[in-house]
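note to self: dont lose this again. the chain is below, predicted strucutre after it. 528 aa total, dont forget to put it in the shared folder this time
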Amino acid sequence: MDRKTYITVVILIILPIISILYKLNVAELSLLPVAVDDTVNLQVVISPKENVAISEVSFPIPKQFVQAKVLKANIKTEDFDYRVIKKQYGHLGIWEGEDWNSAIGYYAKIKMLPYENQDPEPEIPLPSKKQLVKEPYYLSLKQFSSEELTLAKNLYEQIHPYDKDNVSSAKQIYYFISEEIINTYKDITLSDTIRLNSGNAYSQALLFSLLCRMRGIQARTVAGFDLNKQSEKDNKNKITFWNEIRFHGKWYFVSTYKSIFASSVTGYLPLWKSVEEKRSLGEDPATFRYTAYITKSNVNRYNFKEYSEEIASSNSFLRYYSLYSLPTPLQNLFRLVILIPIGALVLSVARNMIGIPTFGIFTPILLAMFFYETNLWFGIGFFLLMIVLGFFERYALDKFYLLAVPRLSILLTITVLTLILFSIINEEISIFNQMSVTLFPIVITTIFVERFSIMIIEEGVIHTMVTLLGTLIIALISYMIFFFGSLQILFFTHPELLLIVIAIQILLGLYKGYRVSELFRFKEIFKS
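---
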């Protein structure tokens, strides 16, 4: 490699590195958009205890909350009667039946969102007690027993959250419970928690709600799943409890058990937002057991909107020249187009270093785009069918001694008719799911089939089939690259990385050694 080529390659590699360092250190941008990993699969299996006769089981099922959007749900009922009690603070599924030999339950795909509200401003206390009577449900003390109220009143006098705004009073109650109440995993009642200064997540959450309501602060106890403490071995999870407290019309997350007050948190999936009203949620030790499995969905998405706003708010010139400043349709186009050079790089390695034959230079890449924009199995099936039809069409039209352009036009017409037939059949019996028809099948297959039939005549069937196989292999590799989301986002966010691809292509273009296929082809010569 001469000096001029060496300097060119070095410059092409250094420029993208300098550009990325500028974005990170000078423009203070993130390296990539934040990955969105917020969709989970929830599966709950409910089964009765052995030798227990029961006729009804109730369990909370997912509801559309701010922090949980149900995308898909399926309830397993078997031979049971099933109904749902819908309330603003949760949905309760009820199964009724006689034969409980089999398990029941439900499945849901849920998009989880974080608790975003944090650090509430001080709130002025209400001036009179009369207004408290008109306050919403979450100030009611009717859900608590007389014993609980008596014990809580004595505890409330000890904490003495008077002469303060509501936020400060809530913090004082929070600090008292989180510091004075000892955490335990054992089952314990609210009354015993007050007496013994020991409580689990359930009893501590109830105590916090009770003391806040006595102060005139809206609070509620939430039952749900904490994905942050989920078992990684088997994806099992147990219902846990936390609080939501209301200030200025917003609900804030509180957990005395985990020492969190009004912070932004993620990984909490609420099911029921009023445990005070119904405390028998979750497993009933005497009658039935439940097993909850929570797994993350394989959703590859990125927060493009947030990254676009980050670029737009920067003081760098990049806010005018970034691909994120383009309209959304153009962004979607370039996310695919920007990976075409990577496919060309794969093709260069396959042809120049491995020796895989292909039809033309860019035919495998165009074929990969055809598979990407339609459907992989539809693309392969339609492509192979057109090769067979084109092969017979070639021999049939040879008898008429037609010129090239009319013959190619006939092949184009056959391609269109076949595509129409494919679409109609697929609409009736749904052979290919999520199939979309574009112009790529018409353009690519018409040109490809003509070249295929000519190669069979000029170079024979065996060599043509080997070339066809090589073309399909490179097309499938390029197709997989197009679906590599992280690589796509990396090059879309930093398109200057394509200069490094050019540098690698220069190095490949200078390679004059043996191809891998030639090592096998001439192995007898190498032996001698």
